[in-house]
Design goal:
Rossmann fold, Dihydrodipicolinate Reductase, domain 2, 9 helices, single chain, 319 residues, alpha/beta, 2 domains, six-stranded parallel sheet
Length: 319
């Protein structure tokens, strides 16, 4: 394989600001095709993609003679159809979180990925953030042992179609994914409450207790419609405690304040990881990066739906 031929579906802000720059930084990648339902977006695409073929219908672009892999960066509700077609045609796919809106669709995609032996990944960007990976590797090495975790999300009001899922789908799924990623432990139970907007599934308050295999626990609080944004994960351990604010990492001092950790190593990005997988440069099967069938994306969505069930039944729900 001389150059990996990549297709992109959806030229929104995340793809344009994350995936496309990552791909254009590689000499072994050629973006041969881009697709968007908006001709305006196609016309305004990155100037370095001017030689790429353009499409307004993904079904015309998903062709193994044209692309070796596809990035799906559409609204959540459109993830399933394009990923399914790519897998059926033997084309590896990477999809922005969440993998799909419904659990049934996610299970079908993961099943297709495995039965067709075709790569499927969910682009969980926090796997590659220096803050996340530094703490995950500290835990994996046995240098520290987590005793309790907390996560808090507050966000200003946003207007999104409910067909793309609520706050848990759009934002908190980062947390339901990154907590198992950091600890190396699967979520087994959830319990708590959710307040919804009347007549909708949109969450306005989420207050959950999460239990991992082995008994480790985490608390999760999410509040919509605040005056400020907040996104933090705290890991309290037997030796040192950490706070992750997305890419920023803080450690607690002897006086009880939080001090930023500087000069963290770089660990790559999900775009490059997908390209390397297409090229056959797969990590060791025991490496956490070795998930080639989006089991992580499916599991994170299972936790989201378990939270809804726990809130609606008032019971502890197994994941």
């Amino acid at each position: 394989m001389d150059k990996v031929k990549i297709g992109i579906i959806g030229l929104g802000s995340f793809c344009s600001g994350y995936h496309i720059p990552n791909l254009l930084n590689r000499s072994d990648v050629e973006v041969t095709a881009v697709c968007d339902i908006s001709q305006k977006c196609l016309d305004g695409r990155n100037r370095r993609l001017r030689d790429s073929q353009t499409f307004t219908d993904y079904r015309d672009m998903i062709d193994p003679d044209l692309i070796d892999g596809v990035f799906v960066s559409t609204p959540n509700r459109a993830h399933f159809a394009s990923c399914k077609l790519a897998l059926e045609r033997g084309i590896p796919a990477i999809v922005d979180k969440p993998i799909t809106v419904t659990l049934e669709d996610a299970e079908e995609l993961v099943g297709l990925s495995k039965s067709h032996n075709c790569i499927l990944m969910t682009a969980f960007t926090r796997h590659f953030m220096s803050s996340t990976e530094y703490v995950r590797r500290e835990i994996a090495s046995g240098a520290i042992t987590p005793q309790m975790l907390t996560a808090v999300q507050r966000q200003s009001p946003i207007k999104r179609g409910i067909e793309d899922g609520g706050m848990l789908h759009r934002r908190t799924i980062h947390i339901t994914d990154v907590l198992p990623w950091i600890t190396g432990k699967r979520v087994v139970k959830v319990e708590g409450k959710i307040q919804y907007e009347t007549g909708h599934i949109e969450e306005t308050l989420v207050d959950m207790r999460i239990e991992f295999e082995g008994g480790l626990c985490a608390s999760l609080l999410c509040i919509k419609a605040c005056d400020e944004n907040q996104d933090e994960v705290n890991i309290y351990t037997d030796k040192q405690s950490y706070r992750l604010e997305r890419a920023r990492l803080y450690t607690i001092t002897r006086r009880g304040g939080w001090q930023r950790v500087e000069n963290l190593p770089e660990y790559g990005n999900s775009s490059d990881h997908f390209v390397e997988a297409i090229k056959g440069n797969w990590p060791d099967p025991d490496d956490p990066y070795a998930d080639l069938h989006s089991d992580d994306g499916l599991q994170a969505l299972r936790v989201v739906f378990a939270m809804h069930k726990a809130a609606q039944t008032g019971r502890v729900v197994d994941v």
